[in-house]
Amino acid sequence: MKIAIFHELDYGGARRTVDELAKRLNKILDVDLYYIDEKEEKGLKKNYQNIFFYPFYPRSWKGNNWMARFYKDTIELFRLYNLHKKIASDIKSRKYDYIFVHPSKFTQAPFLLIFFKNCIYYCQEPLRIVYDPFLSKIYHIKFPKNVYEFLNRKLRKWIDKKNFVNARIILANSKFSKEFIENSYGKKATVCYLGVDTNLFKPLDLNKSIDVLFIGNKDNGYDLLDKLSKLENKIKVLTIFREKGKSSITDKELIEIYNKSKVLVALNRNEPFGLIPLEAMACGTPVIAVGEGGYNESIINDKTGFLISRSPSKLYEKINQIINNEKMRNEMGKNARENILKNWTWDKAVNRFLKIIRYAQ
Q: Are 242 and 217 a contacting pair, CB within 8 Å?
């Protein structure tokens, strides 16, 4: 069987999903990759039979330039649509059994979906600036910018939904995401949990020199950890900020950091799923997470870590509990690793995927 995989993603959790699934699917299917980016990426050939790269150069916009913003919201989207139309034609000419589509960094649900009736779409999350109550509010924007933003979001919502509803099979990364997707779009989704490479992310015999590790964006959950600085403590915190899903460190460095950390804190608001906690737990590091979103499905409270309310005092309490109790920390770390091996590997994720698409035939 032949499968075409498409994405236009920056590197991050969603992009890692593409690579890890493709790496394993390519062992049993003929897998081709179609992707859009500003430059061709090296080192992909080992995961695919054929690779088709389509260059696309989005205009840079950092604010205070309304012409650039208007271009991105109109002409640039039209250019992207035409490029997807060409990719769809190329895919159709090669006659695939399955077309596996991943999200777009430009439109969320990509334009490619409207050119087919049989796509599998892995929806990591709905368009959150429209459907997430916390992000959909337009704050602190003066007229007429607020009018423009309102109309632009209406357009983005229309594009995203028009593309989304054309997919034949919708995959979600968690039960939380499944419900979020179904409430947003009114179309059924199926949970296909993701995983972690347990041969890569594994325990190492390293000194626990970092009390608390935070990996993420400044604008998503970090405020909760930042409030701890107002409390009297001597906790050693390492923060690794990601911009557009990218991190400045390699996987090797990241694995060492996980292993040097006593606990990872996962604080994103309504995180759809979250690969970072899985990676940490695969390395034997317990996790403290807010009891929201997909964290509730991957972290076992009081066994592989703690699920807490969004409270600085509760976070502070649980951090101290873990970093000052080595026996508890080691036991939680052991439980975390065992749970990952049992339930959260990429091989299991691929088996779930194959079962879902074969059942849908």
A: yes
